[in-house]
Amino acid sequence: xxxxxxxxxxxxKKKVLDxxxxxxxxxxxNLVIGGSGSGKTVLMKCLVGLFDSDQGSIHYxxxxxxxxxxxxxxxxxxxxxxxxxxxxxxxSMTVENNVSFPLRMFTGMQLDEINDRVNFCLQRxxxxxxNKLFPSELSGGMKKRVAIARAIAMNPKYLFxxxxxxxxxxxxxxxxxxxxxxxxxxxxxxxxxxxxxxxxVVDMGEKIIFLHQGRKWWEGTFxxxxxxxNVELNNFIFASKVMxxxxxx
Length: 249
Prior knowledge:
Blueprint (H helix, E strand, L loop, with lengths): L1 E10 L2 E11 L4 E5 L6 H9 L6 E6 L2 E2 L5 H8 L2 E4 L11 H12 L4 H14 L15 H13 L5 E5 L7 H18 L2 E5 L3 H7 L2 E6 L2 E6 L1 H4 L5 H7 L3 H8 L1
Parallel strand pairs: 3-8, 3-9, 6-7, 7-8
Antiparallel strand pairs: 1-2, 1-4, 4-5, 9-10
Helix pairs in contact: 3-4, 3-5, 4-5, 5-6, 6-7
């Protein structure tokens, strides 16, 4: 479990996160939703240590990540997989070199072990015969699946995905959602997904945290959204045509 306790973060005079507290549950996909500028990406960057919060603390299974220095955080960072919004693949590397990058950087695995792990991860995300291709030769959906393969290469306990469906067509977005759900359940990971995609909210809405103006405004399940009278949540959710269908029901 990841526990966030009273996190705040400002940039200059602008407070982006304001006293946010929440827990992220293992074995399910925890969704963080909210409009642009609500603080979703800043929260995720605080969670993985790319930003340090101004106050509050973050705990990974009881370990206070916020109190650790760079060296002390390394064991936890090695338990983290990250899928960035654009995939963040290395354009000059082949698919297999992209996926093997964390293994080569952070483990003492032999080359044959690395190759076996790379092939396993690519098969797990349903990519075959792409090892020698470069990112420029892949479709958007394939790039996202390579990014997921790289993220799970170290067999992480915690998986973070920032807008994994950004730029994808609806059919491919469903494939990516299903893949994230499957590997989360299979490996009992604590998965946190930032998303604007209301299809993801419908399909993966076991636990949803809604950020508004840098604060945690609401928390619950997809079913509870449909019954909520939270004005800001409703204004955000039901702006989507997908959600208007549920509202009419």
